[in-house]
Amino acid sequence: MGETALEGATSAHNLKQINIRIEEKKKALAETSEFLAQFKGLVDRNKNVNRASCAGKGEIARARESQKMHLPFVMVASKASSQFNIKRTPDQTRILLSSSERVRIYNDFDVMKAIRKSQNAKKMAAAQMIAG
User: Fold this and answer.
1) Which long-range contacts (CB under 8 A, 24 or more apart) does 90-99 make?
2) Cα dist. 43→57, 68, 71, 111 in Å?
3) Owning domain of residue 50
């Protein structure tokens, strides 16, 4: 039996929709893979800081411990002259933040992405210096 024009158009439309969904899923998978790589990088960074802290004594160990990044977190950026007022709710599940200036808030994923880009840029610059 032959395929009618309507069936052919429907099949082509369905195939196009399937291809769109495949591309969306590929993009989501790439973002998830990137996040996993960033998360693993953060875990490794904290392990290295922890090893260095264990080797240090007193103030040096506390300084290294303060370099750890704990999840989840947000980073708030504003002008240096900004005045902040930060309060926690009694159950300590929420933070109330007010500022005298506009602020930008970055979530942990954005910060980890920026750190990873910075690390990759440093590695590429070093490789170029060695090759050049």
Assistant:
1) none
2) 23, 9, 10, 14
3) 1-69
The token pair at 6 is 């309507």
User: Residue 54's closest CA among 41, 42, 68?
Assistant: 68
Count of CB atoms situated within 10 Å of the CB of 84: 12
| 50, 86: one domain | no
Burial 14-36 (b: 16+ CB within 10 A, else e): eeeeeeeeeeeeeeeeeeeeeee
**CATH number for the domain including 85?**
1.20.140.80
Q: Are 119 and 93 found together in one domain?
A: yes
pTM of the model: 0.44
The number of angstroms, rounded, from the C-alpha of 107 to the middle of its chain's C-alpha atoms is 7
Question: pLDDT 10s digit of each residue in the chain, 132 long?
Answer: 455 665 666 788 888 899 999 999 999 998 888 878 877 877 777 777 666 555 556 665 665 666 666 667 788 889 999 999 989 889 888 888 889 999 998 887 788 778 777 877 887 888 888 886
